[in-house]
Amino acid sequence: MSEHARRTPRISLGVEMRVTAVGDFLHAASADHFISIHSGNPVRVACHSSRIRSLRTRGDLSLMPAGVSDTWVEDDASTAVDLRLPHSLLRMAAEDMGLDPDRVGLESRHHFRDEQIEHIAWALEAESRADFPNGLLYRESLGLALAARLLARYRTQAEARGGLPASQLQRVTDYVEAHLEEDLSLASLSRVAGVSASHFKTLFKRSTGLPVHEYVIQRRVERARTLLLRGGLPTGQVALEAGFSHQSHMSRCMRRVLGVTPGAIVRSRA
């Protein structure tokens, strides 16, 4: 990875077409904000926590902020467009809107409609299906528009968490991205941040909502998913490239974080 790539903040919006079978679905807590729009036939859904049943139809949205996990049961096969919004992109939008980027958050919402978000989601779906012909700038522009809409309508006033300053957090996350395939340690990451290891653990979790080891696992899973979708490497090599000790370790983590196996991701390329 180039030095420029290591320094560039991760502000690109993730776009994924998801197909799930009947049964339980887990959304694992992530360092990114997660927006899902239902894109297929109506699906009967029951929330695990409340047991309330509802019917999800095309265009229905769900918003799960960074650090929030959820589980539900789908009685029918489901298709959706999932958008992963890095918090750095939300901060950029907050600054553009004159808001304190250290004090903004998003509220959890399920089965709601928003015409502007829907338009952005369908534009991103079309762009993804065409293999992003308009490039990164177009995707980031749509991501900023999405972040601005979310802040305008679904913003919460986050408490100051006393985590790592933005510049230190960026150094750490950039370092993680550049060294995912290596045996990362708490000591090495705390040195990058410039604080003690024990202090770093607390500050990192306050900043991201996730323990540092869980953040690294989620970034490795995302790296592996990208490599599997790209093709060209055997699954065992993908596991090593993403920093997992072996293929079965990658498979366990992928099932826990994404709810799917590596084989299912490979089959989805067809």
Descriptive account of the structure:
The structure is a single chain. By secondary structure, this protein is an alpha+beta fold. The chain has 2 domains: about 5-155, Jelly Rolls (Sandwich), CATH 2.60.120.810; about 165-265, Homeodomain-like (Arc Repressor Mutant, subunit A, Orthogonal Bundle). Helices cover about 45% and strands about 20% of the residues. The protein has a 5-stranded antiparallel sheet with strand order 1-8-3-6-10.
Features:
DNA-binding transcription factor activity; AraC_XylS_family_regulators; four-stranded antiparallel β-sheet; five-stranded antiparallel β-sheet; DNA-binding; disordered N terminus; 2 domains; alpha+beta; Arc Repressor Mutant, subunit A; Jelly Rolls; 270 residues
How far the N terminus sits from the C terminus, by CA atoms, comes to 29 Å
Structural class: alpha+beta
User: Gyration radius, to the nearest Å?
Assistant: 18 Å
- Runs in which pLDDT lies below 50 for 5 or more consecutive residues are 1-10
Give the topology string: H per helix, E per strand. Answer: HEEEEEEEEHEEHHEHHHHHHH
The number of helices is: 11
Per CATH, the architecture of the largest domain is Sandwich
- Overall number of structural domains: 2
Quickly name the level 1 CATH class of the largest domain. Mainly Beta
Annotation, overall tally of beta strands: 11
Query: How much of the polypeptide forms β-strand, as a percent range?
Result: 15-25%
Task: Look at the structure and give the mean pLDDT.
Answer: 86
Query: Within the CATH hierarchy, at the fold level, what is the topology of the largest domain?
Result: Jelly Rolls
Q: Which geometry do the CA atoms define? A: globular
**What spatial order of strands do you see in the largest sheet?**
1-8-3-6-10
InterPro entries: AraC_XylS_family_regulators, Homeodomain-like_sf, HTH_AraC
Pfam families: HTH_18 (PF12833)
Domain HTH araC/xylS-type: 170-268
Keywords: DNA-binding, Transcription, Transcription regulation
